[in-house]
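Input/output pair, single chain:
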Amino acid sequence: MKELLKLRTKKFAHNCIKITELFYKSYLSNHIKGQLIRCATSVAANYRATCLAQTKASFISKISIVIEEIDESNFWLEFLVDERIINEAVAKDLI
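Output:
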């Protein structure tokens, strides 16, 4: 399960990066592009760190960061749809 989630979170990060290439150029889309890339890649990187946790407390702390970052990623994907920067069908699988 741990290895599967490592792969899934990494794929999520890659897919979020790819989706940003569909954005039209504007100040707003550039801002969201940076935000989405930051939090989506953070999901993958922090999940890997979670897998190396030495204690239960460390695991809980690290997985909490992963949960926060995936929630933020979800927010930005929803926001992109709301702002019509991407259509819902494009974001649906990631959301």
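Helices lie at 2-20, 27-51, 56-82, 88-92. The CA atoms of residues 20 and 34 lie 9 Å apart.
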